[in-house]
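WARN no homologs supplied; continuing
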Amino acid sequence: MVKAIGIDPGLAMTGFGVVEALLRGGKACDWGTIRTEANCPIPLRLKTIYDGLKGLLDKWKPNLLVLEEVFVLKQFPKAAILLGEVRGVIYLAAQEMDIPVAEVRPTEVKSALTGSGRADKEQMKKAIRQILRIENPLKSSHAGDALALALTGLSRNENFHW
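OK structure emitted
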């Protein structure tokens, strides 16, 4: 079966979600966040994200990595640079394991899961839990976003229909 890992990149918390496409529907295999400490130097934080992601890629062996397309606010140029660095280690980890990367716009994810490109966080969480039959609330919005990215990537490649 085809598996995708969605990644919601961030320096403090990088969300991940692994989804396997089944004959009927899909299964959420794993989700959570890779956390880094604010008081650590940036290179160490990037290594933590890289190592955590490499471990997940090695464990789940996904066929696709789905990454949220970047959008940054002009008034926060440093945040944009840091996000670029996080995305760089994500691309490197995927490339080393020969896993293709697909970028998805946030509006495409929202539209694919809820029918509206302007859905809010709660609508998204509800859709994810319903589609993947997850009983317990999703504690982390980063992990929820990552599951949504994985679902959208599988759907885009016609491996998943709901």
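The chain has five helices and five strands.
OK
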